[in-house]
Design brief:
By secondary structure, the chain is of the alpha/beta class. The protein has 10 helices and 7 strands. The chain has a single domain, classed as 3-Layer(aba) Sandwich (Rossmann fold). Helix 1 packs across helix 3, helix 1 packs across helix 4 and helix 3 packs across helix 9.
Length: about 270
Amino acid sequence: MKTEELSRICTQVRRDIINMTANAGSGHPGGSLSAVELMVAAFFEKMRVDPQNPQDPDRDRFVLSKGHAAPCYYGVLAEKGFISRDEFQNFRQLHSILQGHPDAKKVPGVDASTGSLGQGASIAVGMALGARHQGKDIQVYTILGDGECQEGQVWEAFMAAAHYKLDNLTVMIDNNGLQIDGSNDQVMSLGDLAAKMRSFGFTVIELSDGNDISAVVEALNAPAVAGKPKCILAHTVKGKGVSFMEGQVGWHGKAPNEEQRQQALKELED
């Protein structure tokens, strides 16, 4: 797919994120906006999935470990044809299929229910290992937040991924530098995350601009190294695309009001 079309999809997903969170009066716009290019590139450039057959046992798998970025996930799934955009008006409403965190039992295209941070990496490792045991050519992709990497379970999963030589696993880290209580360095510094991932046995591709769709696609298309899981460490901007949200920790879990919605949509349209 041409870069222009991928960029158009990214802009539409950002508009959907703003509208969903504004309509609900709640949600997590900041970390949803930062993850857009990572998720769009995975679904539109790499993953073997079919909206007409979402339960295909031979499909590639995706795990949104940072489950609070569900608005981004739902926007991508709608663009891909898994769900109707009409569902967006029910985001985070009682009995809606689109809850604040993705539910695999309710949403076509969602392979894992997530939201409790730190667990998605383990789920993805299990999926990749299961595909290996079944002898299936299934690729598994997961997106983690950088603050989420403070969880010990994440590192147990990474250790297992390297031990079992899961070269069918791609871990994408949305490294926007902020989490709900402040910057990562203030809360619990992650140190040299790229060096840590390499020391745990991953092939690491570090992106200085993880919101550059062309760079993300190139990283995803980089050849796998036999016997080594891949990590794409993407330096992104929290709130990307909306000037008053960019780099602001306060927009981690706060919805825009109507005036802010209109300003954000105008910026994205321009």
